[in-house]
Amino acid sequence: MSTHAKRERLLFADLLETAGPDAPTLCEGWTTRDLAAHVVVRERRPDAAGGLLIKQLAPRLDKVMAEYTDKPYEELIQLIRTGPPRFSPFSLKPVDEASNIIEFYVHTEDVRRAQPDWSPRDLDPVFQDALWSRLERTARLMGRGAPTGLVLRRPDGQTAVAHRGTPVVTVTGEPSELVLFSYGRQSAAKVDLDGDENAIAKLHESKQLGI
User: What is the DSSP letter of 210?
Assistant: First the structure.
């Protein structure tokens, strides 16, 4: 596992343990137990995880998710800590680097920011750059359902076009916050939005960002 992905994985597991199985998350309708089961299924059950993207496979995913949600919570946390099995593509360092930095950062914040006393983490510049590098590659996928044109901008002026269209809304923030916004956590992301007021309102309320 990459350094960043491993750190976020272990932090996520620690947060799940501290919060307990019934704590709320930013994933609507999901408790920490549900979120833990989702992460384990994604890494360990490729036969079912395809249901995250392919509608026809969703019933299979629902069945397997139910099976894992019923497992002891402590077992789910341990499976997350130990990482994917050797047969999983996520056990390969390049795949882990490409897929799990954002996955575990976002889900860590799903737990943290659902609590009433949360505050933004002080993330190091190297990690921010790693998040930005991944976001640049996935911005158009995440923003394809945006109801307006959408541009993501770092405080230093670097930009990524997430959706072409008019009117355009520019969302400015640190890469970590732009990641959360782009992955459907608009209400929890610390960003500034600039553009037409109606377009900003539509974008903030959109359920079409992320996957």
Answer: -
